[in-house]
């Protein structure tokens, strides 16, 4: 019978699983790169790098990929351009929000976050002395939210936050 190959079914299932693993590996690789860039490349001396490596090992990421990510972040490998950017802003009703991002393109990230804030009735904080105080000076209790699954976008997260606090 045409089209009923056992291998075809296996190929499609394997492709789906590989796509999911590659998303997880790329996220973990970025985190390892940033951790190595911000601190020491030795996991014993850098707790953020140590926890990122533990997460990568838990996800069965190959040791070569982990080593490459550390080298990229520490500058001994290929040039790593990832940076961590923190945005401060206000949601509807004056709710203070801190958004922590990792990006290789600062300008694109700024425009995406600004667009998401303005779309849902918020605004980014001002860096000058005019206007209300920035979110970092207002927030006394910080709740850390990590978004899973990986397909969740910044817009979806802000939509959730803004809808929750309205």
Indicate how many domains the architecture comprises.
2
Residues in helix, %: 40-55%
Order of helices and strands: HHHEEHEHH
Mean pLDDT: 75
CATH topology of the largest domain: Alpha-Beta Plaits
Distance between the termini: 58 Å
Low-confidence stretches: 127-131, 147-152
CATH architecture heading of the largest domain: 2-Layer Sandwich
Q: Strand arrangement, largest sheet? A: 2-1-3
Describe how the helices and strands are arranged.
Layout (H helix, E strand, L loop, with lengths): L5 H33 L8 H12 L4 H12 L8 E8 L5 E8 L2 H14 L3 E2 L10 H4 L15 H12 L1
Antiparallel strand pairs: 1-2, 1-3
Helix pairs in contact: 1-2, 1-3, 4-6
Summary?
This protein has 166 residues and is mainly alpha-helical. Helices cover 52% and strands 11% of the residues. The protein folds into two domains: 6-74, Arc Repressor Mutant, subunit A (Orthogonal Bundle), CATH 1.10.10.200; 83-165, Alpha-Beta Plaits (2-Layer Sandwich), CATH 3.30.70.
């Amino acid at each position: 019978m045409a089209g009923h190959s056992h291998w075809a079914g296996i190929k499609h299932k394997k492709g789906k699983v590989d796509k999911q693993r590659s998303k997880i590996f790329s996220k973990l690789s970025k985190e390892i790169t940033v951790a190595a860039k911000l601190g020491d490349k030795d996991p014993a001396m850098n707790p953020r790098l140590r926890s990122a490596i533990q997460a990568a090992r838990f996800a069965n990421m190959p040791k070569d990929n982990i080593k490459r990510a550390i080298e990229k972040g520490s500058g001994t490998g290929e040039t790593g351009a990832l940076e961590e950017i923190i945005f401060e802003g206000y949601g509807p009703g004056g709710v203070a929000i801190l958004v922590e991002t990792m990006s290789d393109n600062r300008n694109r990230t700024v425009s995406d976050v600004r667009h998401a804030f303005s779309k849902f009735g918020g605004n980014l904080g001002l860096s000058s002395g005019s206007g209300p105080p920035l979110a970092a000076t207002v927030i006394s209790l910080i709740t850390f939210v990590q978004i899973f699954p990986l397909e969740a976008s910044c817009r979806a997260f802000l939509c959730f936050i803004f809808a929750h606090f309205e």
